[in-house]
Amino acid sequence: MLMQTHEARLDALRNELARRGLDGFVVPISDEHMSEYVGGYAQRLAWLTGFGGSAGTGAVLKDKAAIFVDGRYTIQVRDQVDGRLFEYKSVPADSIAAWLAENAGQGARIGYDPWLHTHGWAQAVGRALETAGAELVPVESNPVDSVWEDQPVPSAAPAFVQQDEHAGRSSADKRGEVAAWLKARKLDAAVISALDSIAWLLNIRGADVERTPVALSYVVAHADGTAELFIAPEKVTPELTRHLGNAVTVRPRGEFEAALASLAGRRVAVDPNFGVAAIFQALQAAGAETIAERDPTILPKATKNPVEQQGQRDAQARDGAAVTRFLRWLSLEAPKGGETELSAAARLHELRQETGLLKDLSFDTISAAGPHAAIPHYRVDEEINLPIAPGSVYLVDSGGQYADGTTDITRTVWIGPGEPSAEQKDRFTRVLKGHIALAVQTFPQGTSGAQLDTLARQFLWQAGVDYAHGTGHGVGSFLAVHEGPQRIAKPRGGQAGTEQELLAGMILSNEPGYYKPGAFGIRIENLVLVEPREIPGMEGEWLGFETLTLVPIDKTLVDRALLTPAEVAWWNAYHERVREVLAPQLEGEDRAWLQEACKPLQA
């Protein structure tokens, strides 16, 4: 009989910990590659607690437990996780290390899985526990796996080739760049463990993580341009073998840890953000010198080459036509009643599939009606599915994976009949003004995302309101919809990437928002490409943004009186571009609806 309640699962875990002589255990949402989105086999926190977000950590002791999430999930965690079983903790204000040190007790042995945490995390938490008279203990096998009776197995899907026509560069060229990077630093090898980095470096893709086209694997890249790929044999097809060639040795994934011993006496780079504690520990035990360096593929992957840039434009245009067809459908059907969050998400998925080129969604669609729109990272299911009520705000944040690009777009629309309230129009227009301010900004080379973040918030701040998520994240090319290292967000602890300077070729989202708990939420999101800008009389190099996403924005929610002439001009130019690109892809009533939606605002 499978354990059906989270209380029973928590009890089973505590019994397993006691059997192993442990007084507690830390359960992150993580896999062996520090991925943001993980395969079903790695959804240990969701199984234990019911929490469905993409970021969070649980800490379990003998007599208490806590779950730690950031501001994106403050509402969601309370909806999904039983407060009788887990204390709600908010990061970065609350830290796991401090909570464990305060609650573990003298002599406590707290377990952690060294394949699911970074080396830095293990060191910091270990020090905090040591100060409190407790101990952080690595486990050889994960105790959650021992009690999770119906745990999914890792995907066996074959890996496949990302052709050069989409990648824009050969794998040999990329490996040569990594080899040059290693030689310049007098390093012998680099351990590449981030799945999207491996996919980019070798020009391969996979189907092992839902919504992210990557294959579970590891790479050791050497200074001579060769590499070793550790991947399950059933994933290796003849086509993949031919593609990789003689310079890439393919070995079973299960041999990876043992193979690290062959690097004894070598200088080996490991990214501290993606290299888990077990990798550092194995290298150090072997006598290798570990050098904490950023994964050398990170910046080249983030700065899209001209082929990738054009691929993104093509994908955005194709996806924009599908989303526009959805918005027309929504405008007709939702006011009748009878549509729900799930039915709308399903219809949008169908329309993307009708392009004939959709590989997958880029994340689970956030289809949020009424009060659910106030949950920034809401995820609908059968239990909480709301009807889309006439006379309300509806928010849909969605994206697609195509061989030539990854999309991510949010539109907030008014579902008639009736008119939005003055408050709803005010908040929507302030979000729009912030979106425009960021979209049109030029900035000198060397500018970071943190320096731009305030542009998007300024009009909300003037009204005494804000939003708890970042303004922009990086986006991959047929890869992760959240890609580092670039971000646009407030500079603060735990916000990796906010100090990274923005470089030409980087793609980011522009997505300010506003959320009134229990009432409504608003977000406007387009993807933008960092590109060089020419300014008369400029000194030095300057950059700006090309807006890639092309879908009408709902003018029903706009308070025209709050917009300046320059903002109206941006709106009109943007919608003229939307009409120009999308109209040739649409027919009949869809095209007529687009023409109406793209009519200019009067200056």
TrEMBL record:
Residues 541-601 form the Peptidase M24 C-terminal domain. One of its GO terms (molecular function) is metal ion binding. One of its GO terms (cellular component) is cytoplasm. Keywords: Hydrolase, Metal-binding. It holds the Pfam family Creatinase_N_2. Residues 9-141 form the Creatinase N-terminal domain. Residues 313-531 form the Peptidase M24 domain. Belongs to the peptidase M24B family. This is M24 family metallopeptidase.
